[in-house]
Structure formats: C-alpha cells, structure tokens
Write a structure and sequence with these properties.
The complex is a heterodimer of chains A (about 325) and B (about 170). With about 325 residues, chain A is an alpha+beta fold. Chain A folds into two domains: about 1-60, 2-Layer Sandwich (Uridine Diphospho-n-acetylenolpyruvylglucosamine Reductase, domain 2); about 60-120 and about 160-330, Uridine Diphospho-n-acetylenolpyruvylglucosamine Reductase, domain 3 (2-Layer Sandwich). Chain A is built from 13 helices and twelve strands. Chain B folds into two domains: about 5-80, Ubiquitin-like (UB roll), CATH 3.10.20; about 90-160, DNA polymerase, domain 1 (Orthogonal Bundle), CATH 1.10.150. The chains are: A alpha+beta (about 325), B alpha+beta (about 170).
Chain lengths: ~325, ~170
C-alpha cells in the first residue's frame, strides 16, 4: 500500500512547529511515531497536504518528577515509559497500559505516548482499505448518514481503543496543549468529547506538549482484553486507582473503562461506592465491577469484532481484576 | 511534488537515493536499493515481515518514512551475514528447521537479532514476548523459538536439541 502524496516538514524547535501548525491548520498532520497516522493515510482515511514531523523535537521527550507531579513529554516513546522506574512505581496503570500497546519490540521504539492518547477512534466498518469501504455507503465518520455498528444511530459510534488514555484517565492526568498564542491545561477527563468523529478537543492549530500525572500515593492497575496479547487493540480495558486513607481504607477510587464507548468512561457511581471500604473487601469490588458493567453497557456497539454480550460481560471481569491487582499492591506495602 | 536527495546509512554503507517524501523506508529499500530481503506483507504494521533495525532497535519499515530514517543507522537482513558466512542466528534458523516458506524469516531474524544483542541468553518467555509482533503464516513458531534460544549456545546448553550449534563445530 502506498501513501498519498504530501509535503514533509521537519521543524527544529517547538516554536517553529507551532508556527507551521498555525499556518497550515487542517491541512497538516503531526507525525510522531507514525504507527497510527501512516496506517490511516495508507487506508485513504486521511489525506493531509503537509506532514509535520516531530523527529527533531527532542525537547518533547522526557519523564521527570516535579513538585508532586510526574511530567511526561508528549513525544516520549512507549519504550522509555516502560523502562522508567518512576512510572513503574508511581503510575503502575500507565506502565501496564504502555506495555500492552502493539507489539513489544517494534512499536515501542516508534510509538509515543502523545500519539497513543491522540489516536482517532476506530471501528471495524471504517478502518478499512479504500477498496473495502467502496463496497458500501459512507458511514457517519466517512461523511455519510449511516452507522453500520448500530442500526438507526444518528451519529458515529466509533470506539476509543487507546490503552494510554484509559490508564491516564484513571490516574487523573492532565495534558498541556500548546498553540502559537499560548498553552492551555485540560483534564484528560474533559478532553474527550464523546463524539465519534472528533473524539478529542485538540484544535487543529494545537500540539500536545506534556502529560501531567499527580502523585497521590495511590495504587493503580490496568487490565485489558484483546484477541492476541500483542498487536491487537483492546476490545475491553479498565484502569483503576485506589487511594488509601491513614486508616488504610479506600479514601478515593477511580474506575475508568475503555474500548467500549466513544471515549474512555469514568464511572462515578461505581467509583464512589468503594469509598470507605477496606482493601480486602472483595464483595465491594465485585459489586463495583458489576455496576461498572451495567453503567457502560449502553455505550457499547458491535464494532470491534467480539460480540457485544461478551464484551459487556468482560467489563466486569476487567474492572474486578484491576481492582484486585491494585488492592494487592496496596497489601504489599 | 519533486524528488529529494537523501543519504541513508544502510548496513554500514552510505547510500544516496532520490525519493519522494511519501516513500516509506521499505519502498526505498526494496525498489530503489534492491535490498529485497525485507518483505512487505500487511503494510500496516501488523505482521512484522518488514522489520529492520534502526539504531539497533527493531522497527517496522512499512510504517517508517524514508525521510525519518535520515541520520540513523539502518541494518537490514542483508547486513546480518558477513559475506558468505552466515551469522550464528541465521545458521541456527537453518539447523533447527525454523524456515518454512521463509516470508516472515527476515523480520523474525531482525527482531531476534536485536533481542539477542540486549539479552544473549533469553528464556522462552522473553523470546515469545519479543517475537509477539512477528506473524508466521506457516505457524512454525516452536522451531523459530528453539532456533533463537539455541543461537550461539554450545552443545551442553542444548540438552533437548541434538543439533546444538552446528556452526560452532
């Protein structure tokens, strides 16, 4: 498969990159690792006039701890995140998520964390070759008025299958988006729009610069289900965070379910039900997991291969396993 | 759109090529430089048959723009052997019958070679994890894993394997 024609630009500084973005806006796409962008371009889903490569911007590749926050540059490769002791210790869910993206030896040296959380939503009816898609009418995401995943749906139901986004949302991360005229900080939870066509709120003149994870002294875990352990996107995934109180009870909990809806779902009610519970209370975990399943099932559509019933049932398993793991790491301390 | 002249460092040799910005590294290797060892199969980063090494790390060349490879050291499967003398890994693949149709072999070799550089004595689990991104259509995984595990190991480290390392004898 050949790539469509484009102009290749490689700015040397962040400032130059932002000026190029401000100039080209919608005509430009950012290339970091390329493992998502180039596949979409090969499939004819994207056809940018200009590709702006971040290859020379080593200033966007770092992991550091600063004033109670872990700061990760957007172009940091997944391999660097996995190799970082800081992430393994303080943000285990992110470590577990990055470890499972794509294939271990390959995409990790190209794939970046910024690209992972900014990846477009996917759907088995949309992410196909030109030839495949030419066999049927255009869906919502392709500019038409049909949804093949859910009958009579009036909007796109593509699924956010980012591992990183689910884990980072559970960790309560924020991101910094830089534009030519300044930066803005957004909670990752507010960043996703639940719109299948424009899944996140990154404007065309903006560049993801940094990811900020608060260090809460909490225990986190990430679990995912996919057909193959490598290569495949998750069909269900869950990230959880449990914060212990001085009495060693759960002071705060966050449960996020991914790969099931148009964006990662933060399940407020199921999370709140764990407050004040003990780390050994498996009945409470089971109930929170079932609540998560019931709350997220209405968002699921049949568009990533596995049957809907199976995926929904597995939400409960993934959440429970993640909670169990987080509680286990709490018990170890 | 005009062709651009770039210099790529491939198998320790500088190669001057004229390319379009939208050429992938795989297309340049195969079509411009006649290094047809790296194969194109899926073209979208799933199968791993186009794996090459960039600065010693395995990378899918079908998802790497040739422009992005400028300034890096590229090694393809053609760079594994020293003239007519095969590398230990290649010899081990032959000795252990790890090649069937052979289409995935270049990718397997490049991934395994990078693994063995970091970890000369990997256990089965490490090998399986490292090769998880390379698909073998003939499903000859068992022999591929044996071949990687036994690369360069003297006979006494291969108790289950009668062949051991023939290349060493």
């Amino acid at each position: 498969m050949r790539l469509p024609r484009f102009d290749y630009l490689k700015p040397d500084t962040l400032k130059a990159a932002l000026e190029l973005l401000a100039l080209h806006k919608d005509d430009a796409k950012i290339l970091a690792g390329g493992t998502d962008l180039l596949v979409r371009m090969k499939n004819g889903l994207l056809n940018p006039k200009v590709v702006i490569s971040l290859k020379a911007l080593n200033e966007l590749s770092y992991i550091k701890k600063q004033a109670g926050y872990i700061k990760i540059g957007a172009r940091t490769s997944l391999a660097d995140i996995i190799a970082s002791d800081l992430i393994q210790k303080e943000a285990k869910a992110l470590f577990q998520a990055c470890e499972k993206v794509g294939a271990i030896t390959i995409q990790h040296y190209r794939g970046t964390i910024g690209g992972n959380i900014l990846q477009d939503n996917r759907c088995q009816y949309y992410n196909q070759s030109d030839f495949h898609r030419s066999g049927h009418q255009a869906c919502h995401k392709a500019g038409g008025k049909i949804c093949y995943a859910r009958e009579e749906a009036d909007r796109c139901n593509s699924t956010c299958q980012s591992d990183g986004a689910t884990a980072l949302m559970a960790l309560g991360a924020q991101i910094i988006l830089a534009g030519k005229d300044g930066e803005r900080t957004v909670d990752l939870a507010d960043f996703y729009t639940t719109d299948g066509i424009m899944p996140h709120a990154c404007e065309s003149h903006e560049l993801l610069k940094e990811i900020i994870i608060p260090v809460l002294g909490a225990h986190s875990a990430y679990q995912r289900l996919a057909y193959r352990s490598a290569i495949d996107y998750p069909i269900v995934c869950a990230g959880v965070l449990l914060k212990p109180s001085p009495e060693n009870e759960i002071e705060d909990a966050r449960i996020v379910v991914g790969a099931i809806g148009r964006s990662p779902l933060f399940l407020a009610k199921a999370s709140a039900s764990l407050k004040g519970k003990r780390f050994t209370d498996m009945t409470a975990f089971k109930k929170a997991a079932d609540d998560s399943m019931n709350a997220s099932a209405p968002f699921a559509v049949h568009n990533v291969g596995a049957t809907l019933e199976y995926r929904c049932a597995m939400v409960s398993r993934m959440v429970f396993q993640a909670l169990e793991q987080a509680a286990f790491s709490a018990a170890k301390e | 759109m005009e062709k651009i002249q770039i210099v790529l460092d491939i198998n320790d040799k500088p190669c001057e090529v004229m390319i379009y910005p939208n050429d992938t590294l795989l297309e340049v290797l195969r079509d411009e430089l006649d290094l047809t060892g790296s194969k194109e199969s899926c073209g979208e980063g799933v199968c791993g048959s186009c794996t090459i090494q960039m600065d010693g790390k395995p990378v899918r060349s079908c998802l790497t723009l040739a422009m992005e490879a400028v300034g890096t050291k590229i090694k393809t499967v053609e760079g594994l052997a020293n003239g007519d003398e095969l590398s230990d890994l290649q010899q081990s693949f032959i000795d252990h019958g790890a090649v069937q149709c052979g289409f995935c072999t270049p990718g397997m070799l490049m991934t395994a070679d990078a693994l063995l550089k970091d970890n000369p004595r990997p256990d089965d689990k490490t090998i399986r994890k490292a090769l998880a991104g390379n698909i073998c259509r003939c499903t000859g995984y068992a022999k591929i894993i044996t071949a990687v595990a036994h690369t360069g190991n003297p006979q006494d480290h291969c108790p289950d394997c009668k062949i051991g390392s023939k290349a060493k004898e």
